[in-house]
Design a protein that fits this description.
Elements: H1 3-63, H2 65-78, H3 85-98, E1 102-108, E2 112-113, E3 143-155, H4 156-167, E4 173-182, E5 186-187, E6 190-191, E7 194-206
Antiparallel strand pairs: 1-3, 2-3, 3-7, 4-7, 5-6
Helix pairs in contact: 3-4
């Protein structure tokens, strides 16, 4: 091998070394930087899209803020932040008068903390239609159950209508027991009997409004 060939081979090796070193030192880090920049840009675009969707939803909700406030006020009447027993008693008496029956007695037992019912684990496919998840923000610390019992006397049909209206009235009332004594004879389509009924159930108090989780 003559000297010219040796020099040519040596020059080729030097060029390969220079190119390889240039790739490792200069080009590869630049490509990595570009890839990272592209990934960061993609992440920012995704975050911007999420924020825009959230902003659009907030704007839509704000347009209906008066309706939301009315709904909140209605819910606060149904489940107030304090017992408000006198208000509930007034409601009962008003309904009784409108149905022409007489409230004989009202008793309110001691309030007790709500005991959440832990649902049995089940897959989504096993969930019954209309079944809702338990709200974990409603706890024994902020939700109170007050047992209430009242006795009324009057026409059988009117008592039943009264009980129905109590259940669908402004204050949330869950009927748990209903007992009646007296005549329930019906003449034609109208009940002519007068009965004495005792209704037991629960009213509720939400001591504080649970924080709304952020979307």
């Amino acid at each position: 091998m003559n000297k010219n060939k040796v020099w040519i081979i040596g020059a080729i090796l030097v060029i390969v070394a220079i190119v390889g070193g240039g790739w490792m030192i200069g080009i590869a880090p630049q490509l990595a930087t570009i890839a990272n920049a592209n990934q960061n840009r993609a992440n920012v675009q995704i975050q911007n899209a999420t924020n825009q969707a959230l902003l659009a939803r907030l704007k839509k909700d704000y347009q209906n803020i008066d309706g939301l406030k009315k709904e909140l006020d209605s819910l606060r009447v149904a489940v107030p932040a304090s017992a408000e027993i006198s208000t509930f008693v007034t409601e009962l008496n008003t309904l009784a008068n409108s149905h022409q029956i007489t409230v004989k007695s009202i008793s309110v037992n001691d309030a007790k903390s709500y005991t959440p019912i832990a649902p049995a684990p089940a897959s989504t496919s096993d969930k019954a239609p209309g079944e809702t998840a338990v709200n974990t923000k409603i706890t024994a610390a902020n939700f109170v159950v007050i047992p209430v019992q009242f006795s009324v006397t009057g026409n059988y049909a009117k008592v039943l209508n009264f009980v129905h209206d109590v259940q669908v009235g402004p204050r949330l009332f869950l009927v748990s027991t209903l007992t009646s004594t007296g005549s329930t004879e019906v003449m034609g389509a109208v009940s002519t009997g007068k009965i004495n009924s005792t209704i037991g159930g629960f009213i509720y108090v939400l001591l504080q409004t649970p924080e709304v989780s952020k979307p």
